[in-house]
Amino acid sequence: MSITTRPIDSSHPRTSKVVRPAWEEPRAPLEAGARAIVLFGMAALIVVPLYIVVLTSFSSQATITAAGGMVVVPGELTFAAYEQILSGGVVTRAVLVSVGITTVGTAISLVVSVMAAYGLSRPGSFAHRPILFFLLITMFFGAGMIPSYLLVSNLGLINSYWSLILPSCISVFNIFLLRGFFMGIDQSILDSARIDGAGDWRILSTMVLPMSKSVITVIGLFYGVGYWNAFFNATLYINDSEKLPLQVILRSYVLQGVSVPGQVSVGSGEVATLAVQMAVVIIALVPVLIIYPFLQKHISSGVMIGAVKG
Amino acid sequence: MTALDERRPTPEAPPADPAIHKAATARKNRKRRALFRRDRTLLLMVLPALLLTALFAYVPIIGNAIAFQDYSPYVGAFENPWVGFANFERVLNDEAFWSAVRNTLTITAFQLVFFFPVPIMMAILLQGLLSPRIRSLFQSIVYLPHFLSWVIVISIFQQILGGAGLLNQFLRDNGIEAVNLMTQPDTFLILVTSQALWKDAGWGIIVFLAALSAIDPSQYEAAAMDGAGRLKRMWHITLPALRPIIILLLILRLGDSLSVGFEQLLLQRDAVGAGAAEVLDTFVYYSGIQNGDWSYAAAAGLIKGVISVILVLGANKLAHLFGEAGVYQKS
Q: Quick check: B45 and A115 in contact, CB under 8 A?
């Protein structure tokens, strides 16, 4: 995995070179060492557990038995666990469900959010204040779990994939973030396009969208990660075990120790149960790892910082 | 900006002549209609988001009415008997509810002390690193867990600290009695906080790094020239620069004190037991969705929602008193 990053403040003169500014007193070696150890320790606390999980998922039954559980030192390596869970059955289906929900959900969320953000971005447009207020209130007052469940139930969406998409489809925060970005676009360019007779759909698709690729990408990635990681809405709205997304399967399989129905021959034969469990963790984690470099790039380029600052 | 945008009403005394007044309102209405015609495409674009918000955020607010009913899913919505505040009385007299409130507030307070300062310290440590390459590598590593789901995070903790996890493998190999930290109510507070730290402390530094990079380095230089040492510079330059963002985040956290990582707690509530791991959100979930006591759970949820709003407004007021901008401002 290659992680392309830009440091957060690349324009910062102090950090653009590895040279210490002239006025700063030299570091005591002890202090520099302590700092390095603390930072290295923090990074290790994150990397080492991930490494152990990955390694165990690729280990053979013999290696796992010899290690007495999680494997720290590489022994015999095998793809058996992955072959088993990806050759059909519960996990394979759950992966497909999660991929489908993530793809469709992200597309809908992005389209709705971008349209709303653009629709609210023209200064002084009709009724934009009450609409913003209407959206903003939902950030401060959540209706609560029970009425939301009853609503989804009354709409007949229990056991429908739409229950995993529609209720959490838009994030008001993301709409505000996009709107902030759109408002930063030079309005005089858009106004001259209007004078030339371009409608709003045209302005949005041919001028605003190309100018905001990076912010839209980052919001799309955030929506995507959200859909992929969602677990509670499925435990709430989906009873049909055939329709459960991967995170729920992961929970019942690894945390609740349930052997998932339909998953035959788990733990029997050559494939270790623990390796299979860790393989499910890794499969749930890989898509996030794949998009992470892209996210990183955009986070570093400051999109998020502006948003968090408000 | 077109002329239509300049329609701020000028505060003038109401005209004595009713005819003039009428003409003025007519003119205003005409302007509004023209504005509407101009912006109707924009409004159409906002419509899907408005409908979704109305349906999934506002309709359930009205749905909270069942907290005042004796709700049964088998009867039509308006045929449930109204019972006034009976459900609220039941909730407030329930020892389990108060235990959930205590657990929630304990976790919030504990994390305020042991989670909140960590990203600030990490950011300051990181800021002092001179090599940009190591800095960005470190950032890549510590941001990552934020994007992993709670199910994954807790699965990983289970494999390290759980009954069959790495820690116990090590303990058993060395002849020490094994402890399953994932099911210990006594240490649960520390466990949830370390999980939160593992997942989100790294991500938390991002805002502080932004604030730090906004500091003009010549301030440090001038201070150093005047003989301020490293600690003095941190105290007089770095920390004041972070103050607004620290206060903003504190307010957000205070307003959110009744929510403590719902998914995180729900995933572990059964393993640890309700005594330590039941918080308000899981209480609502178990009494409503699991036990089918809908009106009761809705009442508990409504109490939480209303108090949360009061907390947000209160925290914001507090920020204004301290002379800070707060989350929102009166316009």
A: yes
Residue among A146, A147, A151 nearest A163 (CA): A151
Contact between chains at A143 and B63 (C-beta distance less than 8 A): yes
Q: Is the separation of the CB atoms in A91 and A85 below 8 Å? A: yes
Q: Does residue B285 belong to any structural domain of this protein?
A: yes
Q: What is the pLDDT of residues A15-66, one digit of tens each?
A: 444 567 777 777 777 888 888 899 999 999 999 999 999 999 999 888 888 8
Give the pair of three-digit tokens for residue A119. 């629709």
Beta bridge partners of A131: none
Q: What domain range is B268 assigned to?
A: 86-321
Distance between CA A215 and CA A228 in Å, rounded? 20
Domains and CATH numbers, chain A: 29-81 (no CATH), 88-264 (1.10.3720.10)
What's the structural domain count of chain B?
A: 1
CB contact under 8 A, B143 and A151: no
Alpha-carbon dihedral sign for residues B271, B272, B275, B280: negative
Query: By C-alpha distance, which of A128, A188, A121 is closest to B36?
Result: A128
In a domain, B272, yes or no: yes
Q: Is the pTM of this model over 0.90?
A: no
pLDDT for B115-155, tens place per residue?
999 999 999 888 877 688 888 889 899 999 999 999 999 99
**What is residue B40's three-state secondary structure?**
helix
In chain A, residues with a C-beta closer than 8 Å to the C-beta of B210 are 8, 302, 305, 308-309
SS3 percent helix, strand, coil of chain B, rounded to 5, is 75, 0, 25
Indicate the DSSP class of residue A205. Answer: I
In a domain, B328, yes or no: no
Kindly identify which residue of chain A lies nearest to residue B169, measuring between CA atoms.
Answer: A68
The CA-based angle B157-B163-B164, given to 5 degrees, is 85
Lookup: tokens for A307: 């948003």
User: What's the CATH code of the domain at B235?
Assistant: 1.10.3720.10
The DSSP bridge partners found for residue B82 are B69
Q: Is residue B192 part of a domain?
A: yes
CA distances from B38 to A134, A184, A200 (A): 22, 21, 10
Please say whether the beta carbons of B294 and B66 come within 8 A: yes
